[in-house]
Amino acid sequence: MSSDRLMRIKSAEFQAMAERVLRVTELTSRLNVLPFEDEAGKAELLEQILGKQLPPRVTIYPPFYTDHGLHLDLAERVFINQNCTFLDYAGIRIGERTMIGPKVTFITSGHPVDPEERRLYLTGAPIDVAENVWIGAGATILPGVTIGRDAVIAAGAVVADDVPPASLVVGGKATVHRQW
After folding, report:
1. What terms describe the molecular function in GO for this protein (predicted)?
2. Is the pLDDT assigned to residue 177 strictly greater than 70?
């Protein structure tokens, strides 16, 4: 799993990442139009997207979106419902027996808050989801978050802070923290 990252946008590293994003976008667009029953076709495309075979008993219902794919680590018996997005630039680990509802979004990248630096850098921090977590429909998990074992993320929640094991997280109201 990657640690917190800062990448200059006009760099060779960023160019390589941008090329990977274009390739994965092409692969996911093909995945998302396959007939639902084409298990072999889905498995082949997911292997290209993730850079490895899916672990045993992982279920992914398309449409499925990721921007990089190679930094998405799925354990056994993970269930991913339709229309989920994994922006995995800085790494996403999903633990065993985790259930992910439809339209859940994982975001590991962003930009500095400072307006002068916003277009110069891409920031990133990994997301780590422990075992047996349930993430409800439409939840958003932000960079750097760790979610503890057996936790439940309510539908529509925006998770910006770590979640302790065996806890319920709710809410998505935005608040102004500072102005400039």
Report:
1. acyltransferase activity
2. no
